[in-house]
Amino acid sequence: MDVQEYIASGILELYIAGILSDKENLEIANYAKEYPEIQKEIEAIEASILTLSKKASPGLKYSFKSIMDRINNDVKIISINDKRGVPISTYVGWAASVLLAIGMFWLYQQNQELKSEIQVVEQQNFNLEQEIADSDSSLEKTQELLSSIRDKNISVVPLGGQDISPTSYAKAYWNKENKKVFIDAKGLPEPPDGFVYQVWSLKLSPLTPTSMGLLENFDMDENKIFALNNPNESEAFGITLEPAGGSESPTLEQLYTLGVVSAS
Amino acid sequence: MQLDLLVEQFKKKDPSAFEKLYGMYADNICGVINTIVKNDSIAQEICQDVFIKIWNNSESYNSSKGRFFTWILNIARNAAIDEIRSRSYKNEKKNLSADYFVGILQNKEEEESSNVDTNGLRNLVKNLKEKCVQIIELLYFRGYTQKDAAEELDIPIGTVKTRNRSCISQLRENMESK
Predict the structure, then answer these.
(1) Which candidate in A153, A230, B60, B167 could, as Cys together with A177 as Cys, close a disulfide (CB 3.0–4.6 Å)?
(2) Among B57, B92, B127, residue at a domain's last position
């Protein structure tokens, strides 16, 4: 190969410009190793372009260190983005949605509990109101009762215990004006199932019993005071235990209490 | 062959080798960029970016494909050309001679603050014909192919190589006579 002719062709100048094909570049690189003149010529051409381009330099604003600083910062930023940035945001997103779901479930539970508590409190409230109403009506009844038995027309007839139940006792409060009798049966035992107390108005000579009525719902009645009508001219009151529904005439063997109306 | 060793170390991401190469070529690369963007501060910014890019792509350089300087020259002019395209420099072809690197001389005489070595540049190009300035600009600073340069200068493609050779020879004479 004629080295001088090769140099004179101008291909080495284009080699420095970097506008040849890969094949030509490889060929020249090999020639440069083989022929020192070619290597020298390449370096001389490069030097001329280096000189020319250096004359156009605006000066170096940035130190090498500042370039390395930027390179190192870029590397850090890239590594953070690659290894952590994306996964963290993904995990945070999932974690947030899970927390939200748990939070909503918890709030739902709280809400249900509060609702049932409110129901309980409402029920208690209702019960208390009921008790107050009951107390009120009980108080009213008691006052009514009290005023009834304090009435000046009332005559009090104590009924003493008889053979079958000597500890029993009762009282009759008889208002002759309005023909009413209040029986205070606090001193009577609870009647056995299927039996009921029956109150009789008695005439003594001859002995004539007249039924005044039954003490119904004895065990349910709180104050054990029963109001009965008594249109009779009674001389005594008796209370017998009779089968449920009452009897036509008193069963004298089951006479619990008896009391005579005192002459007034 | 000290350069080859330096480049080998640089390819292995040796910062001290990179620093030496930076010292050897930074002004030239910034100068190449300045012939294209014709603005000192923009050239300096791009120049920094180019050296970061060079470092990040160091392993892609292959000496069988060309000189190390040619490799970084190519990266630099691509970056600079991207820049002027993105800034849509509109008068690129309006006034051809003012657009060539000697245009820096005219610009710089108006701006006293410039760092460009205008006297040195003037001496280098003093007896270069305009057609030499044009062809050097196109081939070295613009990366035109022979075919593109021939079309741009309206000359036969075979003439590009020989004309460039004689222009570079003239440049080398100017350097030696200094």
Answers:
(1) A153
(2) B92
Residue finishing a domain among B60, B92, B124: B92
Using CB atoms and an 8 Å cut-off, which of residues 3-62 of chain A contact chain B?
A: 8-11, 13-20, 22, 25-26, 29, 42, 44-62
Give A110-130 pLDDT, tens digit per residue. Answer: 999 999 999 999 999 999 999
Are B80 and B28 in a shared domain?
yes
Residues 6+ apart with CB under 8 A from B33: B43, B46, B47, B50, B76, B77, B79, B80
Judgement on whether residues B82 and B25 belong to the same structural domain of the protein: yes
Q: Cβ B172–A48 below 8 Å, yes or no?
A: yes
Examine the domain organization and report whether B132 and B86 are in the same domain: no
Return left, alpha or beta for A40; rule: phi > 0 is left, psi -120 to 50 is alpha, else beta.
Answer: alpha
Residue B146 structural domain: 115-178
Confidence of residue A87 (pLDDT cuts 50, 70, 90): low
Note whether B76 and B143 are same-domain residues: no
Say whether pTM exceeds 0.90: no
Residue type (1 letter), A88: I
Q: Which residue among B31, B56, B165 sits closest to A56, beta carbon to beta carbon?
A: B31
Query: Residue A242 pairs with which residues in a beta bridge?
Result: A196
B-chain residues near A22 (CB < 8 A):
65
Which is it for the CA torsion B167, B169, B175, B178, positive or negative? negative
- Measured CA to CA in angstroms, residue B68 lies from A119, B4, B60 at distances of 87, 9, 11
pLDDT average, residue stretch A66-81: 71
